Amino acid sequence: MLTSEAKIANKLGFTPNIISTIGFTLALTSAVAYAITPYYSQCFLIIATLLLLASGFCDTLDGIVARTLGQTTVFGGFFDSVLDRYADAAVYAAIIIAGYCNPIWGLAALTGSVLVSYTRARAEAAGLKMESVGFAERAERMLILATVSVIAFWWLPALNYGIIILAVISNLTVLQRMLFTYKELKKKNTAKTV
């Protein structure tokens, strides 16, 4: 998937870190579009959504370029992860600032989003594979946010409901990952004592 696009990006001189930076910039621009929508036009919701999806495409592409072309580095993974957290925080903060959601739910969604990534990083640091544990990975969260943003163009409360859904499923994913980590580490410890 996206292998041909990865090769084209590489031929054009785009390294994984450059693609990560472009994705981050697109996410920040998306955040600005969300934030200014109440002052200008509902059309900015569509612009924000398109920029968010373009950011997500870059987030997928950077990893594929790195793996396909043998350009993976420890720093690259770290750099991409840090930019993703800042991007998520900026978008959620913009939606809260624009008044599109209840601030409590917005903060819960933002916190859950950051902790989904953090729990994965901590579990993987302990030697556990966390891929596909939980149902609210970043891609799923971005697609939900993009969908409710398009709906909000016609019915603005959709963004608030979408943020509530994101708050619930991201924090449930954190709980899933905590339970998974607990069980797996308990198995490891039991195996060592036998």
Q: What is the compact description of this entry?
A:
This protein has 194 residues and is mainly alpha-helical. The protein is 81% helix and 0% strand.
Give the second-level CATH assignment, the architecture.
Up-down Bundle
Low-confidence stretches: none
State the end-to-end distance: 43 Å
CATH class: Mainly Alpha
Structure notes:
The chain is mostly helical and 194 residues long. The chain has a single domain (3-193), classed as Four Helix Bundle (Hemerythrin (Met), subunit A), CATH 1.20.120. Helix content is 81%, strand content 0%. It is built from seven helices and no strands. The longest helix has 37 residues, at 157-193.
What characteristics describe this protein?
194 residues; mainly alpha; Four Helix Bundle (Hemerythrin (Met), subunit A); 7 helices
